[in-house]
Structures are given as C-alpha cells and as structure tokens.
Amino acid sequence: MDYEFLFIVDGVSVDDDVAVGVIFDEFDGLLTRHRSKHLLDVAAEGDSAIDAAHRLVVRLHRELPALRLLRLDPDLVGVSDIAERAGRSRQNVLQWVNGERLQAAPAFPEPEGTVGRSLVWRWAEVNAWLADIGEKSGDAGATREDALYIDFMLPRWRQVLDDGLPIVRTVHATKVDDDRTGDRDAVAQLLEGTLSAPGVLERISAFPRAERQRLTVICAVLSDRLTTVAARIARDETWVILAYQGEESGLYLTPVTARRVPGSRPVSALGLGPEATVGDLLLVIANGSVSPTTPVTVA
Known about the structure:
By secondary structure, the chain is α/β, with parallel strands linked by helices. It folds into two domains: about 160 residues, no CATH class; about 130 residues, no CATH class. Helices cover about 35% and strands about 20% of the residues. It has ten helices and 13 strands. The strands form three sheets. A six-stranded mixed β-sheet has the order 8-9-10-11-13-12. Strands 2-3-1-4 form a four-stranded antiparallel β-sheet. Strands 5-7-6 form a three-stranded antiparallel β-sheet. A hairpin with a 5-residue loop joins β10 and β11. This is Regulatory protein. It comes from Streptomyces scopuliridis RB72.
C-alpha cells in the first residue's frame, strides 16, 4: 500500500539543484519552501505507514545523506479543504462532521484542534475515514498515533544509520490479533532490551542481507507455524531475524528466509514438515541439527 508523507526537513534546499533532482527522479517527490521551512512531499510503499516511513528513511539516507527528516507535518485541513480534496460541497462535509449523513458509517475523526474559531483535522485521518465510505482521495497517510511514533523514531533511526548500523523493524508473526498477541508483544519488548546491549546489533547485522541498512525482526511464539512466519517476509527481503522465547524465557534469534538461497538450510532437510512450528525449530536447534547462526528456509 502507498503512503504519502509531508516531512519538515533540513540539510537540503530548494536552491540545491542536485538534491531537488534526486528527490524528483528517485522518489517522485517534491521539495518546497514555505517561509523558513523546507517541506518534502513524498510517497512510499509499505505494509503500514510506519513500515513505509521505515523504508523511506533508509532510501533517503542512502541517496541524500545530508537530508535530515525533522518531523511530519500534520497537514491540517478545515471543512473547506476537505470539501475541495474530496470533491464535495461544504454542506456535505458539515453533514459528515455532524453525523447527519451515512449513519451506518463510523464516526467522523476527532478534530486535531482549532485555528481561529474553526475546527481542523489531520488529513490522513479524514482520508482514512473517506476510504471506509468509498470516497478515498489519493494515497493514505500517517494517523496521529503513527505520526507520533514516526516523529519519535526519526532522530533515532538517523543516529543508527549514521553509526553504520541497520535500523530495526519489528513485526508480529501474524497479521491479526489473537490470544497470543500479548506474548508476541513481550518478545518485542525483550528484543528491544537485548538490542540495546553493547555489540548485539552489530553481531545480528552481520547476517547477510540484501538491504544492509534495514533489518526486519519477526516476533513469534512457539506455537506459530513456520509457514506463517514465511508469509511475513517481504518480497524484497532476503533474510530476516526470527525472535522468540524458549521455555526458560530466554530470547532466541534465528536468521530465516522465505526462499532457498546459498548457505540456507530448508526445514525439510531438518526433518520438519509443512505444519512445523517455531517450537519445532527450537528443538532442532537445541539438538544441534543446525547451527543457531545458519539461516533456515521456512517456506
């Protein structure tokens, strides 16, 4: 899915023809200046707004190292702006806001605040609501919650990349919540603490990957099937790290891949069938059938 972002940036200028050209040619983006602020309007593909921003940060750092993404502009819109972007009248929009139309539709988003005496909303949240009623206008954007997370992580992502290390993206082994979601969250929290220890990220990042500046970690529980894990590996990712807890609450990190590549061991060669789980893989590793650092093809 494509997501559009409007970043407030520093380190480049609209007067820099090279930077403007790279942004346009490589990212189909637009760099503009509003008073003293430079704004970068750019879109990226991802499983979510956070994933898309994660991918975009890596690409921008590689192509334009001087560019600094400071924060997201909330792109606030009033009733007239919404009407113009949605191709509707102000009266229609006011009816949406007041819940007077489409009574079966979800409630209109909460306003972000007021400008003067007029309410304003985040366009991304309005557009998501429009998508729910079949009126989506353009690419999706970052909701308030996603934008807060992205803004919080931007300086941290940059620091990690400046240090020559990959920025880490964590996902659950399943896309939908179930009764083990809390356990996967616990794995993610344990992972965060582990990665903050000296030298851990350096060792993990030594695993061969197509994208050297980006590392995906899939947080799983022992009952998750390996085929489910494989489905969470993006098409453009060669290797990812599978994170899970053993019976004694220790954190295990295993490199996995969704397709056969040099140096990997398929699960079938380890005696595991199509119904094999993460727990089965842990037993194989514990028995010494495969080294913990050997990538395993889980598809």
